[in-house]
Amino acid sequence: MDFLIFENISKSYGSNKVIDNLSIAVKKGEIFSLLGPSGCGKTTLLRIAAGFEEPDAGRVILDGQDITNLPPNKRKLNTVFQNYALFPHLSVKDNIAFGLKVSGFGKGKINDEVERYLDLIQMTDHASKKPAKLSGGQKQRVAIARALINKPDVLLLDEPLAALDLKLRQRMLVDLDWMHDEVGITFLYVTHDQSEAMSISDTIAVMNKGRIEQKGTSVEVYEAPRTSFVAAFIGDTNFFDGEVKSIDGDYCLLSVESFPDIRVYNDKAVKPGGKVYLSIRPEKIGISHNKPSEEKINLLKGKVEEIIYLGSHTKYWISVNGFRISVIAVHSTFMLDIKEISFNDEVYIYWSLDSCYMLEQYKEEDEALLTLPDDEILDQETV
User: Fold this and answer.
1) Can you give the pLDDT at residue 360?
2) Which CATH superfamily is domain 2-228 in?
3) What is the 3-state secondary structure (H, E, C) of the chain?
4) Is the full-model pTM beyond 0.90?
5) Domain map (residue ranges) of the chain
């Protein structure tokens, strides 16, 4: 059942159109993530849901009620912010109890509920501490409990883990998922981090320039991206221009500059002469010193230009006729027992006919984003 609905939402700041006629629906009880680069409009959409911003056009509907013009305190939504926003002079227990006290609940009811949520976030032993005495992860758990105790219809989470280090983020993702299962409240989760979104979400909406590029499960947006923007933003991929040369049953033969012809599953029903973009995920590509014997593969030969060993896997960059192809080899066996691939080695790289994917070509204005280093993307101003 569609529970939280954004209907034809538009929002501009001066001449900058941040959200462009966006419509999307969130189902009751799910974890729904808005994922996209800085400036794509995801935080603005969250603030419109919360009532902190007014849309220029469109409606917000919650459980069948139009809440577009309701003030924030009249909406059954609570927000968890990146910076925690805890009251520094109050203890953990009093921070969590704050909303119930403002609502006029009795002392016994408040104590019972606070104890329940202290147990839920595993902070019972820290109930009397002030926020200054807590770690970042503990503060975020308190902020989440303070929001959940009011039993909102939807919990809005605005980059809630961005201030935490990697290991703590990974732990908090598990905790968040578990808390969601315990309370059953709808979560609307905003993040620029694809791994966060893919780890926790029932549904992901990938945003770009104020619009939804694709909505689907983690598997759908990763394995079957609808646009080249989604393919590039969700994980790593190798892109090549191609033209359909011929059709052979369910497959087509692509002509790609400087490569032998490449066979790919023709899920787009492209006809001969059609221009496409070919996407191949690095982890779908095999690498070997020896020419593989499999028949139903695409095969290229190249030279190793760069190697990065990352423990669980190694990332290679292979030069093939002037193109640089990224390959990820997962370490499923003891690495010291196999022949190592070294810098400047001649190698074969190969992939199944079903492991590459045809896409529309991205627009010129998206090109800068697709080539921008992650740290530069994250340093841009968030809208």
Assistant:
1) 64
2) P-loop containing nucleotide triphosphate hydrolases (3.40.50.300)
3) CEEEEEEEEEEEECCEEEEEEEEEEEECCCEEEEECCCCCCHHHHHHHHHCCCCCCEEEEEECCEECCCCCHHHCCEEEECCCCCCCCCCCHHHHHHHHHHHCCCCHHHHHHHHHHHHHHCCCHHHCCCCHHHCCHHHHHHHHHHHHHCCCCCEEEEECCCCCCCHHHHHHHHHHHHHHHHHHCCEEEEEECCHHHHHHHCCEEEEEECCEEEEEECHHHHHHCCCCHHHHHHCCCCEEEEEEEEEEECCEEEEECCCCCCEEEECCCCCCCCCEEEEEECHHHCEEECCCCCCCCEEEEEEEEEEEEECCCEEEEEEEECCEEEEEEEECCCCHHHCCCCCCCCEEEEEEECCCEEEECCCCHHHHHHHHCCHHHHHHCCCC
4) no
5) 2-228, 229-361
